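#struct-help
A.M.: can someone run this one for me? Single chain, 274 residues.
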Amino acid sequence: MARSRRGGCGVLPLVLLIALVWLYNQFDTAPAGDRRRIERSVVDGGNPRRPPIESDTDYVIEQPTRAQDSVGTGFAIDRRGRWLTAQHVVDGCDRLGIATGPQSAEESFRVVESGSADAAMIEDGLSAPKALALADETPRAGATGYHMGFPANTPAVVQSILIGEANALRGAGGRAEPTLAWAEEARFPDFDHALSGISGGPTLDAGGRVVGVNSAGSDRRGRVLTTRPDVLRVLAGSGGADTATPIDGPEDAVRRFRQWLSDGVIRQIVCDVD
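D.P.: on it. Structure tokens below:
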């Protein structure tokens, strides 16, 4: 994801800053370990979306010319081994790994990709002691969002405000995708590097529900793009997640993120290309 602008939003207590520094030290190198090959399938691919006309395209998402090794983010949506991530995180991978810090898992995966948006579900993955709940409705403009993941291999939370629904075109002449556009407000901890690596992580609303998967960012316009919650429901269905608990501001979001990292609910997704 590209770098997005940010603004002031208070100062975290020292104890939270210390916790984030500790987390940074745990994730300062890419996760190692063997990967397993994957099987792919596609859902809701029978109704492809036509690319919007140029005037209706709000964002154009740059795509690499060829698949390459990369690291993104994923999160558990039940305790039986189902995980959500961004489709472009797993696109073109020959082998896939779900890892946390220096530890990794050698698993065999089935990947179910959305045919109309940047979202994918990994099945037969690691079991998790907890799972994140998916929202039933799209949040309204002005809602607060908390984007969680590993930008530049560093655990971080990005706070934003929802602008509204938008159209995104993935690559020149690529497919059109329905997205939500968010205006970045603050980063915890504060950093200047790009958001690459946060892709695939969850975006939660103030109610503690997942309202999107992190998809892309705009450095120039200071935006974060995510999938819509209805896309995730089509892909993952319902049930299996824990009950959502409201998030009481950015400090609580950071605490929650730290706990989910410790529990293994949010992990890095590693893509290897031959």
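A.M.: thanks! Residues 2-30, 45-55, 101-107 have pLDDT under 50 and may be disordered.
D.P.: also worth noting: The helical segments are 14-26, 87-90, 229-236, 249-263.
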